[in-house]
Amino acid sequence: MDTIDPKTIKAFVAACHKVAEYGLIRCSSGNLSWRIGKNLALLSASRSWLGELNDSQVAICELDSEKCINGKTPTVETRFHLGILKQRPEINVVLHFQSPFATAIACGDPSRYDYNVIIEIPVYVGDPAVIDYFMPGTEPLAQKVIEAMQDHDMAILRNHGQVTCGKDFNDAIQKAVFFELACQILLSGAKPNTLGPDALPPLRAAGKG
Length: 209
Description:
Blueprint: H1 6-21, E1 31-36, E2 40-44, E3 58-62, H2 78-87, E4 93-97, H3 100-106, H4 120-125, E5 129-131, H5 139-148, E6 154-157, E7 161-166, H6 169-186, H7 200-208
Parallel strand pairs: 5-6
Antiparallel strand pairs: 1-2, 1-4, 2-3, 4-7, 6-7
Helix pairs in contact: 2-5, 3-6
């Protein structure tokens, strides 16, 4: 890890802990990546618990070769993390999470919901892509996620979890938290009203501003 400033490693570890603090993962579920410079990314190690991650559980990977260069075993979902970072130069962070309400929806029929029940969805998250179930860590799953995230900032993986991305840690985490809130509202039994079609264009425009 001498190729990366120790302060950078600690910032990544702190971000992993923050993901857990917001209730977005359970135990070893979920993983995080962060672009460093032009050709490196930090990733959480395989089977690590983000809430308890330490400096020794941070993998350093090359973006172009997708090889780990510090002897760690990165998350099994490394393919789609690096693939998203390579195809989206404006994106620096990718988060795979499994928050309770969003994952409950992922285990049903995610395509039947209108998630625009709070203004934060059109402003920050946008419409999520829905991806059929594929075995975790496999090339078919990675390719579907990479393809979907070309023009989405959120993807729902059926019976698995969610993926979001952002320009920095707070951006990616905030999208996940707002999406979880929307899913909680949808599953509350309160039959919430969604934002009307006239409300969505200016909110989406505000998010791009």
